[in-house]
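Q: What changes when zinc ion is included in the input?
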Amino acid sequence: MNAFTIDFEDWYQGVELPYSDWPKYEKRVEIGFYKIFEMLNQKNIKATWFTLGWVAQNYPHLIKELHNAGHELASHGYKHDLAYKLTPEMFKEDVSKTKKIIEDLTGQPLVAYRAPFFSITSNNLWALEILSETGYQIDCSVSPIKTWRYGISKCPDKIFELTDAKITLFPISPFYAFTKRWAIGGAYFRLLPYGLTKRGIEKRISQKQYTMFYIHPWEYDEHHPIINIDRKTKFTHYTNLSKTVHNTRQLLNDFTFDTVSNVVANYKQNHVVEQFTIKVLQG
Ligand SMILES: [Zn+2]
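A: The predicted holo structure follows.
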């Protein structure tokens, strides 16, 4: 089983722009939303949508549509603040507020969280304890691939439990190609040929490991505005957007997917889940 996840945010929220500037950008989140929503529904695949509290407040009808179609709603924080730039108090406020906004719309408990830009690293592991204190059960914020912005390279690349933080982690799924580790999803899904993602997932299946796939609505909206941002971000944000739909169709034909909650529950039924303490993610 594999998890299909969407970080549910608009194009200008997926780059680091000040919150105060958001009103001036063209609102296009529904364009990408409906493209991926319809592709998933055609295949009868339920996904997990890590939703910004701000998006839920401004597009409550989309949250209701997702919920009515049987998708899982999860939290991506309120306004895309990097978790490691918040104080523990601010983080607690951010994740509690977002959880409540979305739960009030669906009437269902929300259990999973992903930090913006995978921003739980060795520097802010306190965030995992706050998540469990505030009622979250699953965190999908940690990437075992270290980049300039995020990552904990020693993070196990499987579903595991942290006994002291009392939370289950489902990290990003890496695969090997050209002697490097890459993630299954996001920019890598557009920048590299689809066949590499496919082989990466097949390899994980042969090792009885589940895969976490992630993508964003703006990756299905190839004509969203191009703005002046730093070169690295511009490259990963805008390159090969025209390939996302085609690659996704192939992916959905080749593999089965479900929500994060269902995949974690299934994994726990069929595997002895490894347990660690938070130290496994330090330094
Ligand atoms: Zn995001």
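Observations recorded in class: Residues 7, 9, 14, 76, 80, 116 surround zinc ion (CB under 6 Å).
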